[in-house]
Write a structure and sequence with these properties.
418 residues, alpha+beta, 40% helix, globular
Length: 418
């Protein structure tokens, strides 16, 4: 009975063992090489990143911001000019990586702050881009606010809750951007930053909300995803190039047919049928247009991260609705929107729930303070980034939003001096 049930399976494993026994001298070095080279890359890349001199910048906006998020989009366009050319030998010998920047919005009981964390090499570009479009803003170097708390959370004093946010659909589909809000009537026009600004202004003593937007400029390869989605909507079949085995099999078939029947006439070429152009609905045409418009602007690899921190004895998750409410403004049914990455949500399920939740909280906090990208990233273009992160206009009356009260001006030319 045992032989009848498991005999074939034992035979398969025996055959595989014979193959492995005969080819181990070739398979083992290849396997070890693949493993070793990525350990080496991790080692030298860690050293390269560890030598980067990071700078924490606080941006204080003027009391009256009349510029729309279009100005912030130009800041991100300038940021895309960071050198992304990492040569192969630089990657594998020096561990060089493409520079990335963290745009952060932080709320305490004392106020709402805008921070930018970048490498020393990118500081001048960022300051020039902001001053160029917000000349009355103030930028100063400050200490890292995350250093005010312990290196590991949660602990006996503080608890936290948070998650990363990803797209509902593939990154080729855009979200609703600031242009939608600007095209509304004057009475209906709002600033999307108003919700989070007002919510952060109502935080109690000890409560904190941290929002992090990690950005790394990428080349135009991501636009192939957009082309694939457009072809899919147009009803075109994806072009699949024949593999090496298909090519060899076709060539072998031709050779065998020629040998066995040398007098046979070659088969006539197959006429390709003209693909029928599909008729798109108005909604589908709008989607195709939106996808193509998104691909027409520079893109960034992005991680959007949220975290709420408070004293353990009074911790509540009520503040989590602020980030969800803010981002829901950018969701459209036929295009894209944001959702919580369940793999990063600091909540355990099934068995060992408390242990799983604790490990997720520690991991999320570590990724935040080290400004590390999540395991699942999305691609956003400059217009989308400016929609979810920009300096609030004068319409936002959040009382604890840190603004510059006095307006800077040059001294008069005829000022007498000694």
């Amino acid at each position: 009975m045992f032989a009848e049930l498991f005999g074939p399976l034992i035979g398969v494993f025996g055959f595989m063992w014979l193959i492995l026994k005969a080819t181990w001298w070739f398979v083992a070095p290849v396997f070890m090489w693949e493993v070793t080279k990525y350990f080496w890359l991790f080692y030298i890349r860690s050293g390269y990143i560890g030598n980067i001199k990071w700078v924490q910048l606080e941006v204080r906006i003027p009391k009256e911001v009349l510029r729309t998020p279009k100005a912030m989009e130009q800041v991100f366009v300038a940021l895309h000019g960071i050198d992304t050319d990492v040569k192969r030998y630089e990657k594998w010998w020096y561990g060089k990586v493409v520079p990335w920047v963290s745009f952060e919005l932080v709320g305490y009981a004392g106020g709402v702050y805008f921070f930018i964390r970048c490498g020393e090499g990118e500081r001048r570009l960022i300051e020039a881009a902001i001053y160029g479009h917000y000349p009355e803003a103030e930028i100063k170097e400050v200490s890292d606010y995350t250093e005010l708390l312990p290196k590991q959370l949660p602990n006996k004093t503080y608890d936290l809750f948070g998650f990363d946010l990803v797209f509902i659909k593939p990154s080729a589909y855009p979200i609703r951007t600031y242009e939608y809000f600007e095209n509304l009537d004057e009475d209906r026009r709002v600033d999307p930053m108003g919700i989070i600004g007002e919510g952060m202004s109502n935080l109690k003593e000890g409560e904190m909300i941290w929002i992090q937007l990690l950005l790394e400029p990428i080349e135009d390869d991501w636009k192939k995803l957009s082309d694939a989605e457009v072809r899919k909507l147009m009803g075109e079949k994806p072009k699949v190039s024949p593999g090496i085995f298909d090519t060899l099999f076709s060539a072998l078939s031709v050779v065998l047919s020629t040998i066995t029947n040398p007098t046979a006439e070659p088969a006539p070429p197959v006429k390709e049928e003209r693909e029928r152009v599909p008729t798109l609905t108005p909604n589908q045409r709008d989607v195709v247009k939106a996808i193509e418009e998104k691909a027409g602007k520079p893109g960034f690899k992005t991680t959007l991260r949220y975290m709420s921190i408070d004293n353990r004895d009074r911790f509540t998750a009520v503040n989590n609705s602020l980030i969800i409410g803010m981002l829901s403004q950018f969701t459209t049914q036929n295009l894209n929107g944001f959702k919580i990455d369940k793999a990063t949500k600091t909540k355990g399920k099934w068995v060992f729930k408390k242990f799983k939740a604790l490990m997720r909280k520690k991991r999320l906090y570590f990724l935040y303070i080290t400004r590390t990208f999540g395991f699942q990233t999305i691609v956003m273009n400059t217009e989308e980034l400016a929609s979810i992160y920009h300096f609030p206009t004068t319409k936002v009356k959040a009382p604890r939003l840190q603004r510059i009260e006095a307006k800077k001006s040059e001294p008069p030319a005829n000022l007498p001096i000694e």
